[in-house]
Write a structure and sequence with these properties.
The chain is 35% helix and 12% strand. It has helices spanning 7-14, 23-27, 30-41, 72-81, 97-108, 155-163, 171-177, 226-237, 254-257, 284-298, 314-332, 336-340, 352-361, 397-407, 412-420; strands at residues 52-56, 63-64, 67-68, 86-89, 117-118, 145-149, 167-169, 216-219, 264-266, 272-273, 281-282, 307-308, 344-349, 369-375, 392-394. The strands form 4 sheets. It has a 6-stranded parallel β-sheet, sandwiched between helices. A 5-stranded parallel β-sheet has the order 7-6-8-9-12, sandwiched between helices. The protein has a two-stranded antiparallel sheet with strand order 2-3. α4 runs parallel beside α14. The longest helix is centred in the last third of the chain and has 19 residues, at 314-332.
Length: 423
Amino acid sequence: MLTQANPLLWRLAASRSCPRSIIQQSCAPPAVRQWHRSLQTGPINSSQTPDFAFAFDIDGVLLRSSNPLPHARQALTLLQRLRIPFILLTNGGGKRERDRVAELSRLLSTRISPSMFVQSHTPFADLIDQTDEHDETKAPLKDKTVLVCGGEGDDCRQVAESYGFTSVVTPADIITSTPTLWPFTSPQSYTTHARPLPHPIYNPSSTSPTHLTISSIFVFADPRDWALDTQLIIDVLLSQRGVLGTTRSHSVPTQEYSALNVPLYFSNPDLHWASQYHLPRLGQGGFKAAFMGVWKETHRGIPLAEKTIGKPSQETYAFAEKRLVKHRQELLGTSKGEAVGLRKVYMVGDNPLSDIQGGNTYLSPFGSVWDTILVRTGVYNDSETPSHQPKATVDGVWDAVKWALEREGWPADEIERLGAKNT
């Protein structure tokens, strides 16, 4: 492996009198020469497999809004040319993975596949077979009705359905069905992407034998109508076992009343994100903070249980690493046992509170070590001390890749030479 060659010896070899153009052919350690030759001769065998990889945030690292940041394509293309595995790990979302991957491949002029991509809500796909121990039917979550909030139009419903959820309701469906639920929103603005409800909403004069029952609430992406979504989520949380239009008794003891019968999931805790605007914008974490503030003011003394995934959560990093290990196995043609032998992952991000904190605190079940690199092209303000300290702070993604490769034994001028071929 490259990293089995002592980086110091590699640098010493590079400083000998032989010409730079033939360093990797004659002066590099054998493991390095073998790996370089393998770039020209086909699949890498186990003795030549790099034991490190990368994970990149997207917004503020590779892109700013829909505009590629300087040298982003150069960095990714170099890693692909060297067959060094990487994944894109973002707290963004709101689109189906295959759609977003196609968009990213076009914007970055780099081939990216769903196997190397994790959005904030991608781990929700693992919940479809989950069952509720209090549900006598023991039906999996995929066969129950869930409320999905956030995103543009009907996009997040399509994402949930692509994961296997079969009965997905959105705020658009509810407000067009019952406009009086939130009189400050015009139902007409939702008609293009609203669907009929599977069952009517309960009201005291209803004669229907069944009513709309929500089993779980998912915030897949940033809500566009914070007020409507806040009201709907509160209504469901305070309902009788998820039956929208009902309310739980206030006479129930606080500790029992506060126990959620409808789970609430957020997918992204980021308070800010880097958009095309020159200052950071509020993200889904901003909506969550506002929602929790409303809950606190209207239900004093009653705690609210919720689950938030996305960076920096352990769950999201564990999901991402499993995907990285599998992608590495497919990319390098290694066996499952060899693919697990991942020694180091370099997490490159722009947000100390998500990218850096998550990488610093992640405890890998595979035994890999995650080193974090903070870039100055996104949320992070260089005039402030990062709330979580990275291993390195650099100007941009190319500098991050270069720093990591140097740590793995690559001479700086060799990296620049190889990178120049990808510009």
